[in-house]
Amino acid sequence: MAAADIKFPPSLLGMFGILGGLWGLSASGNLAAAESIVAAAAPALKWVGRYLPLFYVPALVVLPLAVEALSSSELSKIGIVLGLGMPFSLFSAGVIVLGIRRLASVALLPVSPVPKPAPFTMLHLVTCAAVALGSAAALSQATPGSDLGFYAQQLHLLAWTVGGLIFGSIPPALLAPLMPHPVVATAVCATIGVACAGQLTGEGYYTTLKTYLTKGKDGKPKGSGDVLMSFLGVVVLTFGFHIYGQRALLVRHAAEIVGCAAISSLLSMLVTASAARALGLTPDLTLALVPRSVTVALAMPIAQQLGTPESNIPICAASVLVTGLVGAVLCQRLLTLGGFVDPLVRGLATAASCHGFGTAALAATEPAALPFAALGYGLTGIAASLWAAVPAVQSMLKGLAGKHDSV
């Protein structure tokens, strides 16, 4: 790999190590050992699945800092790429899977349902409220610029962020019909928390927002957003366990699942780069949008591999989240409109176009398609990461985006 100048994100290498280790144990007759490892990791896997939105929401919260330099024309062009890109990816993935399915001719068997994470309770919400109030009291008494003031501020922001996910997941019955997606609720609550903290310290919204996600730049201490996003690498590691758990499904439908992930991920990136550049977006903005159909945990490393400036990484994350939200609302209707009825096709097409959000949207009404979506959205991100690590593909994407490396 080094000789070919192919570089993978460390978390992806770890994921392959987990998957390869578990599969190797199982194949060598040590199934009990593999299952004991999975059982030991189960509590952590459930915890990550339960709090998953928290780990990418910070990029959405700090989006105002990233878009303040963009013109209304650039924002509208980004909206066009995202608005039309999701249906394109959905239908193209559906056609790809349908074509492979006809060639493979593998019968669809009943599959085990995907277990849902445990619901939040009022105790979780009350705890977050208590932490928010306690940290607000400490913040109001702390000396400006002190360590106590900073950590009280970040604890306050963390409580609002976590509380937003919980409130968005278990809203009061009267508000439930009006509530947006839990991810949107989380971002809104975190934004309110930033405004409250800015009011308590007198620093204002934007100054406080800059402390939420610093990435340690210029020696700045990391904020609560940094703490949350540090778990994205762990999210990628969990894919190894999830894929292993669905290995029977993967082996039986390898042609459809792997074929869809490999072809649709590359097609999505190539078409996105071409469309964004054709609309006149800058090369850096174009490359930030390229991994829009990939889960955030892998989309941001892909954007970085392609040379996207650090200042545009929140735009990359936001494009993924917007794509997912649009897909969660429209993917099932669009698939029905397009005449796609096979559960395998619907699940894989959803995963390839709107990743985890679309997968979650299938949970309530399409249990037969859900396992394929749950397997496909991780594999689509992995396939996109593999493509982005290949120098020839990197050069192609950069060329389509209009960005040429200096010699």
TrEMBL record:
<feature type="transmembrane region" description="Helical">
    <location>
        <begin position="257"/>
        <end position="279"/>
    </location>
</feature>
<protein>
    <recommendedName>
        <fullName>LrgB-like protein</fullName>
    </recommendedName>
</protein>
<dbReference type="Pfam" id="PF04172">
    <property type="entry name" value="LrgB"/>
</dbReference>
<feature type="transmembrane region" description="Helical">
    <location>
        <begin position="227"/>
        <end position="245"/>
    </location>
</feature>
<keyword id="KW-0812">Transmembrane</keyword>
<feature type="transmembrane region" description="Helical">
    <location>
        <begin position="155"/>
        <end position="174"/>
    </location>
</feature>
<keyword id="KW-1133">Transmembrane helix</keyword>
<keyword id="KW-0472">Membrane</keyword>
<feature type="transmembrane region" description="Helical">
    <location>
        <begin position="120"/>
        <end position="143"/>
    </location>
</feature>
<dbReference type="InterPro" id="IPR007300">
    <property type="entry name" value="CidB/LrgB"/>
</dbReference>
<dbReference type="GO" id="GO:0016020">
    <property type="term" value="C:membrane"/>
</dbReference>
<feature type="transmembrane region" description="Helical">
    <location>
        <begin position="78"/>
        <end position="100"/>
    </location>
</feature>
<feature type="transmembrane region" description="Helical">
    <location>
        <begin position="368"/>
        <end position="390"/>
    </location>
</feature>
<feature type="transmembrane region" description="Helical">
    <location>
        <begin position="51"/>
        <end position="71"/>
    </location>
</feature>
